[in-house]
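User: Second chain of the day. Same drill as before.
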Amino acid sequence: MTTTGALRSGLTVSGKPMSLPLQDLQGVSRQLVGHFIDNVTTCATMPGDIITGDVTAITRVCLELSVSMLDGQDIPAKTGRLAQAAADWAREGVPIDTILHSIHEGLKLGMDLTFSNVTVKDHANLVDGMKLVVETLDIMSATVARAYVREHKAAVSEHHTAVHTLTSALLAGHTTATTAREHGIGIADEYSILAVHISKHPDEQHPMLDGKVVARRKLRRLQAELATRCGENALALLSVDGGTILIPTATPGGERLDDLLAQLSAAARVPLTAAVVTASVAGVPGAADRAHELLDMVRRLQYAPALYRFADMALEYQLTRPGPGRETLGSLLDPLDDHPELLQTLRSHISNNLNRQRTARSLQIHTNTVDYRLRRVSQLTGLDPTTTSGWWQLRSALIARTFSKRSQPDIQVDAV
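Assistant: Same format as last time:
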């Protein structure tokens, strides 16, 4: 906002410049600073050299800006000095609410001084003066806010680069102590390494929306939630499809990782699938490889989105290892080659933990159809999925077949 033409000639009170009570810059600045110390809590706790230096200097700049506006003079140079001071304070960690509160307090005191001698005859100028106070407040607040936002963005970008560098170094097994010291990021003794798959948001496929924008927003929501839940403890390399997250085992630990994944999923508004392996700093590269190998296995088997641990998937992992055992197990399902609907039903039924209702819902068929197809599986393979031994063999065969040489990778990217 800029001053209107009606105010460019300067405002008067009883024939004198309205800015007159403020023109003793040194005296009024001293009075304002004293007022800040008494009425703005944060100012009262600042070191004396900051009060006598930066605070006094910026108070004088704001006072000069106010006088210039009342006198109808140009203000760009003064707003530039205010912006620079605000940027310096942002870098030093002075809260923005302290600055804005001080500006409001200063304007209130300045109004007391400026309008103390106003009479009825000055009504028109008083109205214009009040409008100018609002405009002054707008200019000062906007100038400070823009400076703080710029510094915040720069700091976030710098921190993001540091985290990216450190995480890449850890995953590559490079020495990271120097990098950590340079960027002020601590390295934990042990990490939970999460290999994460992020499902596509339905809107990414919407013909009327920009899928890339939707995907980036999804990722930003997830990253913001991760920062909220874990602060600077978590290190991550993530894309819109997934990546790797390193979390010190102390924060959060153990079972809380399941809750964390649920919170990240809720924030991203899509299902997340993850595999976790724990390792010391030196073991991070190998653990990350195992976590991603486990994640790939879980997704090829089309398991439901959740957090999977290596210990929970040991049987599946062993069954997927190359060798004659895997090929023999996989061949048990050869009779279903000409009946893809039976293989699909078997896969879904096992994925749904043998729950007929969930299987029927996921395939959009009736539960009686599920029963019929399972009976056909039993007839063709000689293995009854309703018995413990039959279910175990069919499940093992399905796992082995998914990874056998005859089977092509069959990942349903966003299967739930």
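The first strand starts at residue 12 and ends at 13.

User: Great, on to the next one.
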